[in-house]
Amino acid sequence: MEKFLGIYYIGINLIGFFFMGMDKHFAQKHRSRIPERHLFTIAYLGGGLGSLIGMTVFHHKTRKMKFKILIPLALLVHVLLLLYIFVF
Q1: Contact criterion met (CB below 8 Å) for 14 and 50
Q2: CB 48 within 8 A of CB 78
Q3: % of the chain residues with pLDDT over 70
Q4: Cα separations (Å) of 82 from 2, 6, 44?
Q5: Which of 56-59's residues contact partners 24+ apart within 8 Å by CB, and which partners?
Q6: How far apart are CA 67 and CA 74, in angstroms?
Q7: Is the pTM of this model over 0.85?
């Protein structure tokens, strides 16, 4: 189970990171954007760290308060979930 979770979290965080980068690129090129609900869904499925790093690296969505609050909250939820699974 630990191996599966490790692979899952690496994958979902890479997706979160790349989606932030893709959305920033689309914004700069005035192309169709990735819906915010998709970005949040990825974060709440476990990609909070990748999304947060993507926000920082690409300077994307860093002014939007809901992203500044909800993306770190998604990360916190999964950290607490993993602590519950593996420590308690």
Answers
A1: yes
A2: yes
A3: 100
A4: 10, 11, 13
A5: 57/17, 57/20, 57/21, 58/20, 58/21, 58/24, 59/24
A6: 10
A7: yes
